[in-house]
């Protein structure tokens, strides 16, 4: 199933925080991890990345790996510097009240692997 970042906003109900044109990116996978060095060595281009990390380094990693988007669970507070950097780099950041597990489960059920 073909899924774009905007589908996560429109169909799943995640809040769009940053990265307006990045909403058109196609998602090719799903990755959940909070250890940044691990993400750098294991996430793949096009992945939707679920993490509670909200500092500016997540944007750098998402940009470096050309990830599809960053999803912040449990309404974790996102640093203003992170949002500003995501806007500058056109990296989509989405947020939700759902837990990482619930996000992963819902997206997996919709065909994102």
UniProtKB/TrEMBL annotation:
It comes from the Bacteria. This is AraC family transcriptional regulator. It comes from Geosporobacter ferrireducens.
């Amino acid at each position: 199933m073909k899924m774009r970042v905007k589908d996560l906003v429109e169909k799943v109900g995640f809040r769009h925080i940053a990265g307006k044109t990045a909403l058109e990116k196609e998602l090719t996978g799903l990755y959940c991890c909070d250890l940044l060095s691990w993400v750098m060595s294991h996430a793949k281009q096009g992945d939707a990345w679920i993490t509670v990390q909200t500092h500016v380094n997540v944007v750098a990693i998402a940009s470096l790996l050309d990830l599809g988007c960053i999803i912040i669970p449990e309404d974790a507070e996102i640093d203003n510097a992170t949002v500003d950097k995501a806007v500058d780099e056109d990296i989509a950041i989405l947020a939700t009240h759902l837990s990482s597990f619930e996000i992963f489960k819902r997206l997996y059920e919709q065909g994102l692997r």
